[in-house]
Specification:
594 residues, three-stranded antiparallel sheet, 10% strand, transmembrane helix, UPF0353/GerABKA_families, TPR repeat, membrane, transmembrane
Length: 594
């Protein structure tokens, strides 16, 4: 029992203690009083008529009634100190991937290399992530965050190609720094449980013993890269990495230490494979929040309080049984409802309620069957949601009065494509519980999706208008061409209708006119050549020259700015990690440089 969580679900019922205490006081005074006998008898005769001795023995029922009233009021107030699960439509399973970027990951005992193979495996794991948040960090002599916890796995996948061993500012393989950084990411997100995947080829021996203390409730799994035989570490220029004695370093997989680390981390140890078996095993563990009972309790279920008040009524039953009288028992039997029709029951129905059978079907992933058996609307909606019946789940929760109910209804409506209705449901949840962070986050996410849809619709309308204008202009051009052809045809027809002599006369007249025009043009050209030519002016005025100069300066500034931006993210990450490492003022690593 956790006394820190002890409270009453309905504390206003405790106010009933005041009238109950007042009623008991009045009852005691009435017992102690002499009633109305003092009004009809002399005071001297009262001791001979009334008996005062049995009064002391009659106080027991009063104390029993007071104790029963106290227990009943406390039971109605709902004392509780323990939580119970309730359904919710979300999976908060988080995964932090820690990738080792020490020099030993350049070994080529796994083709094409350990680091290249690790990037491929991480990409395959990201494709299997259906929901939940994922983060990526890298470590060498120190640990650095590439992407924090996010639902956008595409962002993480786009960073994988830039992860090479030469971006680390300090050599080594500091596993403790990686684990502490991963735990810090999970705690900053407020997650009680989560998974950490260590993608590496070796670990210090003392890390396994301290890992359990560092991790807490988080689980650590290991994806082992490499082979026990190992391979030399290829340098970028030429040759292989050598130790201080000049011997070539052969990086071998430390299976024993990695297996022990996974065991202390309550995870699994998975050697890398040539096929997808390793990714499938890890994916089943990380995505088991939808199927596993353990994760079902932590990720699919929200917390509700377990009321202990009804157990107090068991202490009241013996007192209530003693208060029965013959007529009272008969009246109680008459108030009982009439018996209902009996139905045949199966074996499971004799021992389990419909909700219990439905929950069992739910845990066995028989969501449609569970939805048909659940009496609790929240559980029935949860089963319909898992079965893909999002519209039915939203319909089941339409009369909900709780913040979690509106939040779940909003999730179902969002999955059904009714984004506007989902925003309204999230808004109702926030009105009941303004601190509901999940409802606030999903509301912003759906509103962003609505804006994207509206933008797409506007773009489609603009494209349609442009297409309509283009079609209309083409039609006008075709119409003009047709009109021109018809005019030319009319002229030809008129020309053909003229008499032949008239055509000759017209042709002679046109030739004379053309000759006169040519003579006039030649005379004008001769005069122009004879006159002195004016000085040649500049092709642009002052305003046009200023605009051209400003445009050229803007283009040069843009070119210089673009040259400062790196062409690939590897250099950017390298400078970022180097800056962060310098800000931390860490001591130089004392272990091997690989």
């Amino acid at each position: 029992m956790n006394f820190a969580d002890f409270h009453f679900l309905r504390p206003w019922w405790l106010l009933a203690l005041l009238p109950a205490a007042l009623f008991l006081i009045l009852l005691v005074r009435h017992r102690q009083g002499r009633g109305n006998w003092s009004e009809v008898c002399d005071a001297e005769l009262l001791p001979f008529i009334l008996q005062d001795k049995p009064l002391q023995a009659s106080r027991g029922p009063l104390f029993g009634a007071g104790f029963a009233a106290l227990l009943t009021i406390i039971a109605l107030a709902g004392p509780t100190w323990q939580r119970l699960p309730g359904p919710a439509f979300r999976n908060d399973a988080a995964l932090v991937i820690a990738l080792d970027l020490s020099k030993s990951m350049d070994a080529a005992d796994i083709k094409p290399s350990r680091i290249a193979k690790a990037r491929y495996k991480i990409a395959d794991l990201l494709k299997q992530r259906k929901d939940g948040q994922t983060a990526l960090l890298v470590y060498g002599g120190d640990a650095f965050t590439v992407t924090p916890l996010t639902n956008d796995t595409a962002t993480i996948d786009s960073q994988l190609s830039a992860l090479t061993t030469d971006i680390m500012p300090s050599p080594g393989s500091n596993t403790s720094a990686a684990l502490n950084a991963a735990v810090a990411l999970l705690r900053q997100a407020g997650l009680v449980k989560g998974h950490i995947l260590l993608v590496t080829d070796g670990v210090d021996s003392d890390v396994a013993e301290q890992a359990e203390h560092w991790l807490g409730d988080y689980r650590l799994s290991v994806l082992a890269m490499g082979t026990p035989e190992g391979a030399p570490i290829q340098l970028q220029g030429a040759g292989f990495l050598k130790d201080s004695n000049g011997a070539i370093v052969v990086a071998k997989l430390d299976e024993a230490a990695l297996s022990t680390l996974a065991q202390h981390g309550r995870g699994i140890y998975q050697p890398v494979t040539a096929n997808d078996a390793d990714v499938e095993n890890l994916g089943r563990l990380f995505n088991s929040a939808e199927t596993g009972k353990e994760n079902l309790d932590s990720n699919l279920l929200l917390q509700q309080w377990d009321e202990k008040g009804p157990w107090l009524l068991l202490l009241v039953l013996p007192w209530a049984a003693l208060q029965f009288r013959k007529g009272l028992l008969l009246a109680l039997l008459c108030l009982l409802p009439l018996p209902k029709n009996s139905y045949a029951l199966d074996w499971q129905s004799l021992w389990q309620t419909p909700d219990q059978r439905a929950k069992q079907a739910f845990e066995q992933q028989q969501y449609q069957q569970a939805a048909e058996q659940f009496d609790n609307p929240d559980w029935r909606a949860a089963a319909q949601y898992k079965a893909g019946k999002f519209q039915e789940a939203a319909e089941t929760l339409k009369n909900t009065q709780s913040a979690e109910g509106h939040y779940n209804r909003g999730n179902a409506l969002a999955q059904a494509g009714q984004l506007q209705e989902a925003v309204q449901a999230y808004q109702q949840a926030l009105q009941l519980d303004p601190k509901h962070q999940d409802a606030k986050y999903n509301k912003e996410l759906v509103e962003k999706k609505l804006k994207e849809q509206e933008q797409q619709q506007e773009n489609q309308q603009q494209d349609q208008q442009k297409q309509d204008k283009q079609d209309s202009s083409e039609q006008q051009q075709e119409q003009q061409q047709q009109d021109g052809k018809s005019d030319q045809a009319d002229k030809d027809a008129q020309q053909e209708q003229k008499p032949q002599d008239q055509q000759k006369a017209d042709a002679k007249q046109d030739a004379e006119q053309n000759k006169a025009k040519e003579d006039q043009q030649s005379e004008a050209e001769a005069k122009q050549q004879a006159e002195p030519q004016p000085p040649k002016q500049e092709p642009t005025d002052h305003e046009q020259a200023a605009q051209a100069t400003e445009k050229n300066e803007t283009e040069r500034a843009n070119e210089q700015l673009l040259k400062r931006i790196p062409d690939e993210p590897t250099g950017l990450l390298k400078r970022k990690f180097k800056y962060q490492y310098g800000q931390r003022n860490r001591a130089n690593p004392t272990g091997p440089a690989w």
